[in-house]
Amino acid sequence: MNAMTAAVRAELTKIITLPGVWIVTGVILALDVLVQLQPAELFADAVAKITPDGNIEVFVGQPQPASEAILGLLAGGTLQMGLFLPVLAAVIAGQEFRSRQLGLTVLAMPRTVRMVTSKLLATALCVLVVAVLIAAVNTAFMYGAVRNWNPGLLVSGEAFAGHGRFISFAVLYCLATCAVTTVARSTLTGVIVTLAPAAVTMSQVLARTVPDLDALLPLSAARNLMLDPGVNDLTAGRVHGLLVLVGWAAVTAVAAAVTLSRRDAR
Question: What sign does the CA torsion over 81, 83, 87, 90 have?
């Protein structure tokens, strides 16, 4: 346990000394603020017009129960920003290949499983922090809309459960990206391979034709995990979505360990 803790600490030290990690993190958070600014006035106006029976009409002709709609918008906003987090994971995983320092890491930590595990855990911790910041930013913007109506909704159990689902998605999705980048030994390849299934999900081709297959894609799994099935057309339930994300992270992690154990470190 002490050896693993030391290994994770060493990986974290490498990560936080990388300028690229700070730059990508700053860009993601700045982009989040920019994205949240766009609909802020729309949301505030919609909340101000909540009907006496508790319905809100964020989009014309689509009335919804206000509490469910607000929490749904919060979840959708964080899910949207989660698509940018794999870039951060790929930068973290690809730094040793760019600097050709992997050989030194292998010498210091010859056990492949421990090395891969420590890298993944360190990446997960970094992504977790950024995901929490994204959730905090989105909550702050939503507070501006609901502060005169029901600000307590944003600290309710349902809200925290939604944040928990987002953080689970963010960490698991980025673990898969980190592992894929390790297998490919290329930051760009890691990003492309991870985001390609997301493009398929957004096209909705599989969702309309083969929903069972669509449910196995990581972004579809994230939608199934995070979004309200009563409002959104989903292809599976929340438990299924979580298990799919866990499966992607586990399979790619094993592939990364096998790949490193069979290649010469260089």
Answer: positive
Round to whole Å and give the CA distance between 110 and 124.
22
The alpha carbon torsion through 234, 240, 245, 246 (nearest 10 deg) reads 170
pLDDT tens sequence across 60-112: 777 889 999 999 999 999 999 999 999 999 999 887 765 555 544 554 454 67
| 151 secondary structure, DSSP code | G
pTM of the full predicted structure?
0.89
Radius of gyration of the chain (CA): 20
Element at 144 (helix H, strand E): helix 112-146
Segment 219-228, tens digit of pLDDT: 999 999 999 8
How many domains, in total, are found in the chain? Answer: 1
Q: Nearest Cα to 131, choosing from 192, 83, 182, 72?
A: 83
Burial (Cβ within 10 Å: 0-12, 13-18, ≥19) of residue 57: middle
Q: Which domain holds residue 171?
A: 3-262
